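User: Please fill in residues for this 89-position structure.
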């Protein structure tokens, strides 16, 4: 079973995440979704009760992150050493 990658606690952010979002003219939430859906062995189910967030989430599927940006996100948000419950964004 692949390691789970929890989202950072608190608000979506972080310098790396915000820099990458700005580069792609996307929101941090869209970058997180693009980061997660690139992995074929990871199931990503974005939650949204708001139409605006649903539309925003859909935009994440259209972003193709560069290898360098993927590496930067991997370093900024490393996988935990053990399985942990996932947080809801």
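Assistant: Residues filled in for all 89 positions:
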């Amino acid at each position: 079973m692949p390691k789970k990658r929890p989202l950072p606690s608190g608000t979506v952010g972080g310098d790396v995440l915000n820099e990458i979002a700005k580069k792609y003219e996307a929101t941090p939430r869209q970058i997180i979704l693009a980061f997660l859906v690139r992995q074929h062995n990871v199931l990503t189910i974005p939650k949204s009760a708001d139409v605006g967030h649903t539309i925003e989430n859909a935009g994440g599927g259209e972003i193709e992150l560069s290898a360098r940006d993927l590496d930067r996100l991997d370093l900024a948000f490393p996988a935990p050493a053990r399985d942990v419950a996932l947080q809801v964004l």
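For context: Confidence is low (pLDDT under 50) at residues 1-7.
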